[in-house]
Amino acid sequence: MTDINLQENNTKNSKLYSSVAISGATFLGGPLAAGYLIGENYKALNKPDEGRTALIIGIVTTILLFGGLFMLSTTLIDKIPRQIIPLIYTAFIWGFVEWKQGDILKAHKENNNSFFSGWRAAGVGIVSLLIIGIGIFGYVYLSTDNELYDKYDAEIEQFSKNENETLVFFDHLNTETRSSLLQELDEKTIPKWKENVEIINKTNSFKDLPSELNEQNQILLRYSKLRIQAFELFRKAIEENTEKYAPQLEQIHKEIDIELGKLN
Length: 264
What we know:
Elements: H1 19-44, H2 48-71, H3 74-79, H4 84-110, H5 118-142, H6 146-167, H7 169-172, H8 178-204, H9 211-240, H10 246-263
Helix pairs in contact: 1-2, 1-4, 1-5, 6-8, 8-9, 9-10
């Protein structure tokens, strides 16, 4: 039973949205689009109070839905197929429309009365999607989750500082003595790259670290370990006063360039 009392062709002067059109708009724009379109049908049926209620429910449901998603960990979200959630709430809305307005929409169609086009409903869905997108952007921008990025950036700043301080070693190769170079490698260069490995491992432990930062960390970790290999080979070459490690060093530096290229 619906909450609308039917009379024979009592909607001949009304234009409504079909359940198919509402479902399509819902898939595009979420519960917000559904609440608006269901509300518009109620208004066309001289049910303004129900129309306002439908819109309010659509707004509240949208906030609860996306608020709940933000509370889930990034790892869990990444495991959920992208179409599953829209399909679930679209199916729910279709069932709700059929329950509340199905009979009137069926009679409206059988009497050859007018419906709004699916394109118009899709337009509502797109506008709803834009509104939700702006809301999500604002939430992310203003969210305290920015503390995570600040925390991460502080660690990466130290990583970059270590990197800059150690790469001056290459400027010293032709100007410093062997003993000075070995001391630099032992006391600064190699320890700072080992510290960089620890920095990346530390940031990997941050809760809810976004997937793009996890991917960046994987590259930085490989890069850091390659730097350690290279500087340890430099140390052996200097200590043994030999160039026999040159081919290995050349290969490692090629691998370093590949990893750095992935960061651009």
